[in-house]
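Q: Could you predict the 3D structure of F-box domain-containing protein?
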Amino acid sequence: MPCQLLADCLKDIFEYLYDDKNTLYSCLLVNHLCCEIAVRILWRDICKFYDYNDTPHIPLSIIYTLIACLPKESEEILHKNGINITIPIQKPPLFNYASFCKVISIYRINDMLKHTLEKQQSNISKDLQNLILQEILKMLMNQISSLKALKYNVYISHSEDIDVVSIAKIHLANLVELKCDSDICSEFISQISHNLQSLTIDFKPNISNRLLDLIFSQNNLKIVNLRNFQDYNYRIFISSLTKQSLILTKLTLKNCKISIPFIAMFKNLQELILNQKNGEYTFYQLQDAHFSQLKILKISIYDDDSDVDLLINFLEINGKNLTEFYIYHYHNESINIALADFCPNLKILCTQIKEREEEIFKLILNNCKYLEIIEYHSGFDDLFYFFEILANHSRKYFYGLILEYFAGSSIDAIYDDLEEFFINWQDRTSQRPLSLIISITDCVYNYSTKSKNDIKILVKEYMKLGIKIQKFEIKKIPFYKVM
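A: Sure. Here are the predicted structure tokens for F-box domain-containing protein:
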């Protein structure tokens, strides 16, 4: 009984580390019990931490492990087709890793397999690569007793050599999350659960004739993400979402052109994400819309000032309920003034603040008294004023700073910025230890004399001087991934 209690406690603790792969990986090395619990969490979504450019060893390890776990039947099929992959694993796998997976991304697994074969310089044809992928998928589908999420990519999944429909037939009844293209095959749709909670659709020129039925048949759909939607081609599609209008709590629109009233019918939205390159199709819908439950708003603006007045009007109506606000790709001081005036309950804020806006920044910090985290996008600007005001005017709840550096910055500038921040923060009495996350795009590494290690040394020096830092992390992100 005490052992089971310990296991249950460890499981709850490790679940909090789900997004921290480095710490969770360290838990594998503590003892057998910790290893057995942590490995199940790490393998729940094998693609979650995959970034071949940043950590190339991870996809290699995953594919080698999956191949090592293949049943004898699959090994014989691969051997008969002349496929021999050298696996740097001497002992049999400690666990049945495939059975721990609850999320499958066909595209990601295929991508990891491709990189693994390239690493081994294997001259395997596309057909044979598809055969390896099919055997891996077959094993996963057979081992996973309850698949929760499937990311189904048409380009791969419609290959003649990968019959995903047949190998997934008995394993889709418990799906709660589905990501697919609009031309997903009708036979596949017939196997999918009617209790999806999250649905992501990337629209292509064609739409499956049963996709509308799939949406209409859902009983508990809470999250909908639409990409590349064109309403003048698919007006009938919107009507299929009417049934979900009062159930939906999160809506994401990316590169969608929706010229007819649409967003306002989802009265109970708690989160709204608009990543539109052409705002004219979206923001006019929001100017008089009221969402009493809306807590999170994320917006990308690419154009000029034409959408600003509409957004400010929306904040005046809905800003009091917002706890998180993010705006990307665009700066306008009127929006920052509106945030200070209409959004007093913000806890997380992502925006740009220019040097001439010192008083506006002070106004935000004074009026948004519950502010905990600020995400700031930096470029050429000198951040001296930013850190000084942050140290002197942020309220007692503030503890988190996320800095994103894009083109025009350097590691040297980041080093100087952080040192300035620590100098201003030294006399600050804070309720919580600091959390600092720095996201750096690829181009920032150019023309720098300092390195990430220099920044880590700087952080440690100021921790010794008494600044409490609970979390410090430097993330490298490809420039194309910036929202």
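Q: Anything worth pointing out?
A: The first helix runs from residue 2 to 15.
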